[in-house]
Amino acid sequence: MSIAYTITANEPVNQQIYRFLRQDIVTCVIHPGSLLSEKEVSSRFNVSRQPVREAFIKLAEAGLVQILPQRGTFVRKISAQRVADGRFIREAVEIAVVRRAAMEAAPAALMALEHNLQLQKMAAQRHDVQAFLMLDDEFHLLIAQSIHCELAWETVENIKATMDRVRFLTLSKVSPPESLIEQHEEILSTLRNKDADGAEQAMRRHLQEMIFSITPIAEQNSEWFEQV
């Protein structure tokens, strides 16, 4: 069941609709292969069709939907190749970030990461998958912020939408939050020790989890994945 989102006056309507639909697609509330109706979405949010159309275009740019003329807008099935490509780009960016953070992160930044880890553990104990995913993203954002390079995380955020769907599916079946928390703790330990090589290895192991987990997830949810 989708969350009852509320449109506010704080940001453009099309951006809010994009974010809400992205959340529903990533968490598979809206299943891969589903048809998205401009009319139904505009009615759901009580807005005109124009911001909905703009949100659909942005979702298409993120690789989450496909707009077919005369046929409609469909949620893309998950592409294993796109997941692999996104992970490759993300790994290149985040390894560069974490190596620099190992040398430059200030004590206050390390404390923020520790606090985030405590919140991750609480979310895992509550079995709150969506909260855990948000905190997971925040952990990586905090590392980028520790070297004053938020743009690095923005770059990752723009290419990881397809990866996020697999992340959501793996949390309960293949990569439970507890194992991801252990990996985050290992990354933080290397940052505390100013160990750039260790930080690179820990981050690489963490991000490669996606490659190991996608095969069993694709087997369990074959109808949601593109067939090759």
From TrEMBL:
SMART domains: FCD (SM00895), HTH_GNTR (SM00345). Pfam families: FCD, GntR. CDD domains: WHTH_GntR. InterPro entries: GntR_C, TF_FadR/GntR_C, Tscrpt_reg_HTH_GntR, WH-like_DNA-bd_sf, WH_DNA-bd_sf. Keywords: DNA-binding, Transcription, Transcription regulation. GO terms for molecular function: DNA binding; DNA-binding transcription factor activity. Residues 11-78 form the HTH gntR-type domain. SUPFAM superfamilies: GntR ligand-binding domain-like, Winged helix' DNA-binding domain. Coiled coil: none annotated. This is GntR family transcriptional regulator. It comes from Pantoea alhagi.
